[in-house]
Design a protein that fits this description.
439 residues, alpha/beta, TIM Barrel, Immunoglobulin-like, 2 domains, 15 helices, 19% strand, globular, binds 2-acetamido-2-deoxy-beta-D-glucopyranose
Length: 439
C-alpha cells in the first residue's frame, strides 16, 4: 500500500512537470513524411511532371485514407504529419506563412478537414530560425505569434519545430515562446521540439526539466535514415545515455529517437522487429515514415502488433532501460508496465547465427514468484516461469525476442522487479543498481 501511495504522489509530481495541454499522455503515433519522402525528389518530380502537380497533397490524402481504412487508426496511428518543404517561399501580404500553391492546391485547411473527417489529426512543420532546413521561410522570434495563430486557424493538431538557421540564444527564447504562443491560441496543439538535438542532446546544455514543461516530445539526436546502422546508432545513443534520458520521459513528455523506418528498404524483418521492440521499450513516439500504399504484409504485421503497441502505449508512461550488455553481444532491455506487468527484450548484436541465451528472471532481478510469459512477435503464450527457472531464448542476428510478462497471479507483492523502484524522476537517485552490467 505504501508503494501505491508513493505512485499517486509521483503521478501528481509528473503532471505538474508536463506541458499542460492535456495531449500525448501516451507516446503519439502516426505517419510522418520526412524519412521516406523528403522534399527534393518530390519537388523535382513535380517540376518535371506537370500532370502530377498534386503529388504532394495527394500523398497526404492517400496516407490518411490508408490509416483510416487499413486498420491503423484503430491501433492508435492517428497523426498525418507534413514535414519540411510545404511552404511557399514567400509569406503572404499579411506576413503569414502560406502553402506552396502547386504542392497544396486546395490549401492546408482543406487538407486538415479531409484528415479530421477520417478521425485523424494533422501535423505540420516549422523552424525556429530565419529559414527551415530545406530553405523555406522559418519562424524567427518576431514571427512566433503570427505563425502559431496561423497553424491554429488552419486547425493543425501538432507542430514539429525544427532549429536550422538560429543560434543558441535565439533557440533559448524561441522554443519556450512558441510553447506559450501555441497555448495562447486556445487550440490544443502537440508540440515537438528539435531544440535538444541542436544542443547536443545532453546536460548541462539541455535542461530536460524545462523541456518537459514546454514540449510534448523532443528530438534529442540526429535524423534517422533507412538503414540498420542508423537504427542501431540511434538506439545505442539513447540507451548509453539512459541515466539522463529515462527520467525525462513521462505522460505528456517524451524522448523522440525519430521515425520508424519499418516498411522501407533498409531493414530486414528481424531488424524491423528490433526497431519496433526497442522503440516500444523506449516509450518512443511511433511515427512511421513509409509508403502505406505499398507496404509489405510482413512489415504491416510488425507495425500492427497489438501487444508491442500496448507496451509502447502503457498508461504509466515509464521509459524502459537496458539492464544488461553481455560480452557475447546480447543485450537485455526492460520496461515496467501498469498492473505490475513488464516487458523484456532480448536483442542480439551478433552477426553469425541465432544465439541461445540462457538466463532466469531472478538473474534479471524479478522477485520470487511465477510469471506468465507472452512472446510478442511469435504471438503466443509461453510456459509460466518461476523466477528461479533457467530458460533459453534463441535470438536471431540483429533480431529480438520480446516478452510481455504478467504479474504473478498468486502473489500480492508490492512490485515484481527490484527495478520497480524505478518509477520516474523521484526514484531515480536510488536506481544506480540498474545500470548495465557485463556478466
Ligand atoms: C494553456 O495553459 C493552461 C495553463 O497551464 C492550461 O490550463 C490550458 O489547458 C492550456 N491550453 C492549451 C490550449 O494548451
Ligand atoms: C509523370 O506522371 C505519370 C503518371 O503518374 C507517370 O507515369 C510518369 O512516369 C511521370 N513522369 C515523370 C518524368 O516523372
Ligand atoms: C544570435 O543571433 C542574433 C540575431 O541574429 C544576434 O543578435 C546575436 O548576437 C546572436 N548571438 C550569438 C551568441 O551568436
Ligand atoms: C532547468 O529548468 C527548470 C525548470 O524551468 C529550472 O527550475 C531549473 O533551474 C533549470 N536548471 C538549470 C540548471 O538551469
Ligand atoms: C540487480 O540488482 C542488483 C542490486 O540492486 C544490481 O547490482 C544488479 O546490477 C541488478 N541486475 C540487473 C540485471 O539489473
Amino acid at each position: 500500500m505504501r508503494f501505491a501511495v508513493a505512485l499517486c504522489v509521483l503521478a501528481l509530481f509528473v503532471a505538474t512537470l508536463a506541458l499542460d495541454n492535456g495531449l500525448m499522455r501516451t507516446p503519439p503515433m502516426g505517419w510522418l513524411a520526412w524519412e521516406r519522402f523528403r522534399c527534393d525528389i518530390d519537388y523535382k518530380n513535380m517540376i518535371l511532371n506537370s500532370s502530377h502537380s498534386w503529388e504532394c497533397e495527394v500523398l497526404f490524402r492517400d496516407m490518411a485514407d490508408r490509416l483510416a481504412e487499413d486498420g491503423w487508426r484503430e491501433l492508435g496511428y492517428v497523426y498525418v504529419n507534413i514535414d519540411d518543404c510545404w511552404a511557399s517561399k514567400d509569406r503572404d501580404s499579411n506576413g503569414r506563412l502560406q502553402a506552396d500553391p502547386k504542392r497544396f492546391p486546395s490549401g492546408i485547411p482543406n487538407l486538415a478537414s479531409y484528415i479530421h473527417d477520417r478521425g485523424l489529426k494533422l501535423g505540420i512543420y516549422g523552424d525556429m530560425g530565419t529559414l527551415t532546413c530545406g530553405g523555406y521561410p522559418g519562424t524567427p522570434l518576431d514571427k512566433i505569434t503570427i505563425d502559431a495563430q496561423t497553424f491554429a486557424d488552419w486547425k493543425v493538431d501538432m507542430l514539429k519545430f525544427d532549429g536550422c538557421y538560429s543560434n543558441a540564444t535565439e533557440q533559448e527564447q524561441g522554443y519556450p515562446a512558441m510553447s506559450k504562443a501555441l497555448n495562447a491560441t486556445g487550440r490544443p496543439i502537440g508540440y515537438s521540439c528539435s531544440w535538444p538535438a541542436y544542443q547536443g542532446g545532453l546536460p548541462p546544455k539541455v535542461n530536460y526539466t524545462q523541456l518537459g514543461e514546454i514540449c510534448n516530445l523532443w528530438r534529442n539526436y540526429g535524423d534517422i535514415e533507412d538503414s540498420w546502422n542508423s537504427v542501431l546508432s540511434i538506439a545505442d545513443w539513447f540507451f548509453n545515455n539512459q541515466d539522463v534520458l529515462q527520467p525525462a520521459a513521462g505522460p505528456g513528455r517524451w524522448n523522440d529517437p525519430d521515425m520508424l523506418v519499418v516498411g522501407d528498404f533498409g531493414l530486414s524483418m528481424d531488424q524491423s522487429r528490433s526497431q519496433m521492440a526497442l522503440w516500444a521499450i523506449m516509450a518512443a513516439p511511433l511515427f512511421m515514415s513509409n509508403d502505406l500504399r505499398t507496404i509489405s504484409s510482413g512489415a504491416r504485421t510488425i507495425l500492427q502488433n497489438k501487444v508491442a503497441i500496448g507496451i509502447s502505449q502503457d498508461p504509466m508512461g515509464v521509459q524502459g532501460r537496458r539492464l544488461i550488455k553481455e560480452k557475447s553481444g546480447i543485450e537485455v532491455f526492460w520496461r515496467p508496465l501498469s498492473d505490475k506487468a513488464s516487458a523484456l527484450v532480448f536483442f542480439s548484436r551478433r552477426t553469425d547465427m541465432p544465439y541461445r541465451y540462457q538466463a532466469s528472471l531472478g538473474q534479471l532481478n524479478y522477485t520470487t514468484g511465477s510469471y506468465k510469459i507472452y512472446d510478442v512477435f511469435a504471438e503466443r503464450e509461453m510456459a509460466t516461469l518461476k523466477d528461479s527457472t533457467h530458460f533459453v531464448v534463441s535470438i536471431n542476428p540483429s533480431g529480438v525476442v520480446m516478452w510481455y510478462i504478467s504479474a504473478p497471479a498468486d502473489q500480492d507483492q508490492e512490485n515484481t522487479h527490484i527495478g520497480g523502484k524505478l518509477r520516474g524522476p523521484a526514484f531515480h537517485r536510488h536506481a544506480n543498481g540498474i545500470s548495465p552490467i557485463v556478466l
